[in-house]
Amino acid sequence: MAVALPLRAETGLRQKERPTREEVSALSISQKIVDGLIEHNVNFVTTVPCKQLAGVIEIVEKTPQIMHVPSNKEDEGMGLCAGAWMGGKRPCIIMQNTALGVTVNTLATLIQFYQMPLPMIISYRGELGERVACQVEMAVHTKALLDQLHIQTYHFHKPDDVEEIGAIIKHTFMSRKPTAILTDSNFWGGY
Amino acid sequence: MIRSEVFKTLIPLISDQLVVCNIGLPSQELHMMDDQPSNFYMLGTMGLASSIGLGLALSQKQKVIAIDGDGSVLTNLGTLPTIANNPASNFILLIIDNGSYGSTGDQPTYAGRKTSLAKVAEACGCDNVIECKAEDTAKVMEAALKGDRMTIIVCKCKSGNVPVPVIEMDAPVIKHRFMEEVKRRNA
């Protein structure tokens, strides 16, 4: 895929500081995700960190069109998003799939019950290439939980899948439902 | 004074304000006493009134009052650092602290024992926290509404409930009329 960022080697830095192809790819993907948010007027983002989403969070924080309010837990973040939506903003939550368990009640009784749109950009830990065995324990429940909750789900597995981000955001606000975008390790170019 | 008596003293002040009200009896009492399009009633999701209120306050200009309970704040204690670090001058969090889980049978909360929510809020970085007696709540609320600072009010009141009907309004209807009201006030 096209890489917009210059390699650090070209700016005269030492060879060992040169980012790997995977790092450049992840940075470029992060930018494309944020570009998709901006293009579809998402202007309120709450985040709970994940290593895979660190690049997205960093760009969100620096983006003047987006109000970034980090939250301590994902259900709290969904509450912030619900308030922001009712206040006229277009919200989004960025989180890890391991947190899906703690958000089931909030998704059902707040976001779905009141018919609110909520794009959820989720790092899909525990998939191929994972090094931490415990992450797999929630990975095996991730799609089952989303399916049980009737949440429209998109799985980004290849870097080019990022091109769909805009259409998914648009669809989420049209349908006034939560939407899960699962981004796995392969999509991010490995761990 | 119990919560519903505190509400009675507050209604003249908050009736025309945007209010996000906590799940269970608080929403049912407010709905019974003074239903307004400017009230957002939570029908589920214990603990998130303060988060919804903060999100709303950060997203538009009108003042927002979130009415929460001590049990609900304890459920979502992470909300206090978020509120402290993202101050909204138009946000008032009123914690009705009756030391009990009122909607589930008045079981005691830790806030009614050793834990001070006012001190927790201060330790989290909230810099305008006022703890008051139930009888003084209206006076404190009036000052907060006149002021231009984010305010956390911890109202210490007695545990107890009055019989109230459940809210029959559909959730999307509550949301829709509230959003229309928010839009109208910000136009």
Features of this protein?
A: 191 residues; alpha/beta; Rossmann fold; 6 helices; globular; disordered N terminus; B: 187 residues; six-stranded parallel sheet; 8 helices; 8 strands
- Count of separate structural domains of chain B: 1
Helicity level of chain B: 40-55%
CATH superfamily of chain B: Thiamin diphosphate (ThDP)-binding fold, Pyr/PP domains
Gross CATH architecture of chain A: 3-Layer(aba) Sandwich
Under the CATH scheme, which class of chain A?
Alpha Beta
What does this structure look like?
The complex is a heterodimer of chains A (191) and B (187). In chain A, α1 (21-39) packs across α2 (54-62). Chain A contains 6 helices and 6 strands. Helix content of chain A is 42%, strand content 16%. Chain A is of the alpha/beta class and 191 residues long. The longest helix of chain A is centred in the first third of the chain and has 19 residues, at 21-39. Chain A has a single domain (27-137, 144-184), classed as Thiamin diphosphate (ThDP)-binding fold, Pyr/PP domains (Rossmann fold, 3-Layer(aba) Sandwich). Helix content of chain B is 42%, strand content 19%. The longest helix of chain B is centred in the last third of the chain and has 16 residues, at 171-186. Chain B is globular. Chain B has helices at residues 3-14, 25-34, 49-59, 70-75, 79-85, 117-123, 137-146, 171-186, and strands at residues 18-21, 39-41, 64-69, 91-97, 100-101, 107-108, 129-133, 151-156. The mean pLDDT of chain B is 97. Chain B has a single domain (3-186), classed as Thiamin diphosphate (ThDP)-binding fold, Pyr/PP domains (Rossmann fold, 3-Layer(aba) Sandwich), CATH 3.40.50.970. Chain A binds chain B through residues 44, 67, 69-73, 75-89, 91, 105-106, 108-110, 113-116, and chain B through 20, 40, 42-45, 47-60, 76, 78-79, 81-82, 86, 171-172, 174-175, 178-179, 182-183, 186.
